[in-house]
Specification:
Helix content: 55-70%
Keywords: Membrane, Transmembrane, Transmembrane helix
Shape: elongated
Number of strands: 0
Transmembrane segments: 20-48
Number of domains: 2
Strand content: under 5%
Distance between the termini: 113 Å
Order of helices and strands: HHH
Structural class: mainly alpha
C-alpha cells in the first residue's frame, strides 16, 4: 500500500517552480549568447564597411553625397516613368531628365522643342 501521508506527497508547486527557474536560467543564457553574437556580427559589419570605404578612395562625406545624388536620380527617374504612358517609356531619357533635375537643370516640358542657350 502506497504511503499517502502528507509528508510523502511533494507539494505540487515545487516541480512547477523548478521548471520556471530552469526556463528563466536558459532564457538568460540564450539572451547573453544572442547579445554576444550580435556584437560579433556588428564588429564584422563595421570592419567590412570601413575596408570598403577605404577602398573607394573617397571621404565619408563624399560617399554620402554620392549616395544622396544616386537616390535623387533614382527617385526622379521613377517619377518620370510614372508620369509617362506605359508604351512611351524611354529609360535613358528618364534617367537623363532625373540627373539634370538633380543638378538643378529644369526638365523640358512636353511639346517644348525650343533650344535655349544661356550666356
Amino acid at each position: 500500500m502506497p504511503d499517502t501521508s502528507p509528508a510523502a506527497i511533494p507539494p505540487p508547486r515545487s516541480r512547477t517552480v523548478r521548471l520556471l527557474v530552469g526556463g528563466a536560467v536558459l532564457t538568460a543564457a540564450g539572451g547573453l549568447l544572442g547579445a554576444a553574437g550580435t556584437g560579433l556580427v556588428a564588429a564584422a559589419a563595421w570592419g567590412a564597411a570601413r575596408r570598403w570605404q577605404q577602398a573607394t578612395a573617397m571621404t565619408p562625406a563624399q560617399l554620402a553625397r554620392h549616395a544622396v545624388s544616386a537616390t535623387v536620380v533614382g527617385a526622379g527617374a521613377g517619377a518620370e516613368a510614372w508620369r509617362r504612358p506605359a508604351g512611351d517609356l524611354d529609360l535613358a531619357a528618364a534617367l537623363a531628365t532625373a540627373a539634370d533635375s538633380a543638378r538643378g537643370i529644369p526638365a523640358p516640358r512636353p511639346g517644348d522643342d525650343r533650344v535655349e542657350v544661356s550666356r
